[in-house]
Amino acid sequence: MSVFIDSGVIMYAAGVPHPLREPCRTLLDRLAEGSVDAVTSAEVIQEIFQRFNRMDQETGAAMAEAALDLFDPVLALTDDVMRRVPELAFDHPGVSARDLVHVATCQAYGIDTIVSPDEGFDAIPGITRVAPEDAARLVS
Fold first, then answer.
1. Which of 18, 29, 61, 93 falls 20 to 30 Å from 69 in CA-CA distance?
2. H/E/C letters for each residue in 101-135?
3. What pTM, to 2 d.p., does this model score?
């Protein structure tokens, strides 16, 4: 079964030196090799574009394109996905809107594992968060 890759994994992999940079890069390398079955969503691509577009539009576009190529195809933000978000928000106050969209995406597509540095996912029953530094166990 596929795991969902959160934007934080891609951002740490592409960002400045940080303790999570190498684990995130390793995970994305394994994904590119085909030894990790993983997906992401249009919302994650938007987050990546937004973050790197702040540097300059060319960087933002290049990062979004690289992510689109790595996760081909990306999961769509459908009506079904978005209709799940309000209920999740009522059930999990304090969890960010973007994280709730990711959880709704996982629910709609039958995914129960998210790879993310964001501990906010730990509060969601039915979702297992795997920290990037622990993602080696996902290699098939």
1. 18
2. HHHHHHHHHCCCEEECCCHHHHHCCCCEEECHHHH
3. 0.94
What is the SS3 string spanning 17-52? CCCCHHHHHHHHHHHHHCCCCEECEHHHHHHHHHHH
> Domains in the chain, ordered, with CATH?
3-135 (3.40.50.1010)
Say how far apart CA 124 and CA 25 lie, in whole Å. Answer: 26
Q: Please state, in angstroms and rounded to a whole number, the distance separating the CA atoms of residues 58 and 122.
A: 35
Helix, strand or coil, per DSSP, at residue 6: coil
Using 50 as the pLDDT threshold, list the residues of the chain that sit under it. none
> What is the Cα–Cα distance from 4 to 105, expressed in whole angstroms?
9
Angle in degrees, CA 134, 135, 138, rounded to 5: 130
In whole angstroms, give the CA distance from residue 28 to residue 104: 23
CA 41 to chain centre: 7
CA distance 84 to 93: 14
> What integer pLDDT is reported at residue 140 of this predicted model?
65
